Amino acid sequence: MKKALSLCLKYLSLFTVMGSIYYLIEIIWRGYSHVSMFILAGVCGICIGLINEILSMDTPIWLQAIIGSCIVTTGEFISGCILNLWLGLGIWDYSNMPFNLLGQICLPFSLLWVSGRGRCRGPQESAAWPARSSGRRCPASRRCPRPCSRGRWRCGCPG
After folding, report:
1. How far apart, in whole angstroms, are the C-alpha atoms of residue 29 and residue 92?
2. For residue 101, how many C-alpha atoms fall within 13 Å in the half-sphere facing its CB?
3. What is the pLDDT of residues 39-48, one digit of tens each?
4. What's the CA gap between 84 and 146, in Å, rounded?
5. Average pLDDT score over the chain
6. What backbone torsions phi and psi does residue 65 show, to the nearest 5 degrees?
7. pTM
């Protein structure tokens, strides 16, 4: 029960933080946003945070960035088809952007998400880190209080 509560809190925190960050970015960039963007960003944040739960921590950051971009672009396309095309809310329209698909996604923003995932590696990993740590302490350094994570010490000492 305690582990389930911990996981629930972790993913709720990740959802809230990532949703809030993207919502604020939209307000700064466009001057407005929509609550659906908070929800989409929160869901994408959880999915991106799961990359290192599914793949090895040694997965190259460029591959994680591409996977993260695919997650965001797919989520944006599905949400856009439902919210903009089916329900007619008109939250965004990339029709004037090059290489767009139905005006819901476009290549320039997909490439921007690759860059964003590479730079924002920390929030996902730090939110997921406590649940993955084994609790063992680094034997090589008494100065390192950080637990081991999947055979690698957070201080850089070999496992």
Report:
1. 13
2. 13
3. 999 999 999 8
4. 46
5. 80
6. -65, -40
7. 0.69
Residue bearing tokens 């929800």: 39
**Residue type present at position 32:** Y
- Return the structure tokens found at 95: 């029709």
Kindly report which listed range (72-76, 86-90, 138-142) carries the lowest average pLDDT score.
138-142
Distance CA 130, CA 147 (A): 9
Q: What is the 3-state secondary structure (H, E, C) of the chain?
A: CHHHHHHHHHHHHHHHHHHHHHHHHHHHHHCCCCHHHHHHHHHHHHHHHCHHHHCCCCCCHHHHHHHHHHHHHHHHHHHHHHHHHHCCCCCCCCCCCCCEECCCEEHHHHHHHHHHHHHCHHHHHHHHHHHHCCCCECCCCCCCCCEEECCEECCCCCC
Instruction: Give the burial class of 129: count Cβ atoms within 10 A of its Cβ; 0-12 exposed, 13-18 middle, 19 or more buried.
Output: middle
Per-residue confidence band for 157, with pLDDT thresholds at 50, 70 and 90 = low
- Rounded CA-CA distance 92/74 in Å is 15
